Amino acid sequence: MKQIMAISTALLFLTIGEVQAQNGIEQVLKNIETNNKELQANEQLITSQKLEAKTDNNLPDPTLSYAHLWGAKDKNETIGELVVSQSFDFPSLYATRNKLNRLKAGAFDSQSDVFRQEKLLQAKELCLDIIMLRQQKHILEERLRNAEELAKMYAKRLQTGDANALETNKINLELLNVRTEASLNETALRNKQQELNTLNGNIPVVFEENQYPAIPFPSDYQILKSEVMATDRTLMALGNESLVARKQIAVNKSQWLPKLELGYRRNTETGAPFNGVVVGFSFPLFENRNKVKIAKAQALNIDLQKDNATLQVESELAQLYREAKTLHASMEEYSKTFQSQQDLSLLKQALTGGQISMIEYFVEVSVIYQSYQNYLQLENQYQKAMARIYKSKL
């Protein structure tokens, strides 16, 4: 038998169309990466965090003091004292903190990558929803044309006495249902497009694709798992935070080294000036107490977070893989069934020719349309599952 021609056209994905869909989504994501206000704000936040981290390695402010003393008995006898000094940490501590700041910058960039990935994944899922809604719109338009033709035909038959009011009312009810579904579909499509525009900084997005990109199902789970675990941005961010925490331990250990102070001192007593050098040491016996223990506890906390995140990523991947596998198998079953399905035009001819009743027609048509709606839902869920699996490629 023939395939269901009008609807099947919307569900046949040619290679050229699939490549264009992929390019279309990628272009949308590039625009959003440039125009999204949250990404722009986060970029400035990361810049400020990097600069703030560098301030921890700044020198303290120099000090200048002047004292003027005079005698209790003879006020003409005076002493003046000028001191200019600069304090600083032990030199090796600056080098250690500089390495820490470079690691912090890498950790901040990793956090930014995670945030960027979340926004782009959100945008990609919106694109996938828009594609599904457009495919549903195509089917609803076909249903609407079919229902309108039948409504006109049975209205004439009712006037000539070849149809009864029950059949006419059933067709009119179908027409009302399709119009309602089409209206809801149009509203949902506009809302999704508005969400996409909002992600793009409220700049209208040009996205006209109605076909999904081709994403084959990965047959080897272990290879997929190795790839995903090696490129997961959350795990990479926690790995960088772990490096920061370990370097912080080294910094806190180095802070037990003495602080130094160098300066110039000028003393004048009754017109006889004395010049000299000021040298001082400060031993941090109290202010660094427990700081090494704190840094070690924080490092252990990060490591445990990373271990937990690893388990979460593995679990999420396994769930997504099972979901995608089930969806892919169901899609193949539907595709095989569609190939042997009756053509809608044949059903319509059988109805108008009196070979089947109105009830039989609507039962057949309802099953066919519902099957295609189910297929569209399955493919949308499959595309989203694969997008989440390969989110590190965004």
UniProtKB/TrEMBL annotation:
SUPFAM superfamilies cross-referenced by the UniProt entry: Outer membrane efflux proteins (OEP)
Q: Which Pfam families match?
A: OEP (PF02321)
Query: Which Gene Ontology MF annotations are present?
Result: efflux transmembrane transporter activity
Q: Give the superkingdom in one word.
A: Bacteria
Family listed: Belongs to the outer membrane factor (OMF) (TC 1.B.17) family.
The name this protein goes by in its record: TolC family protein
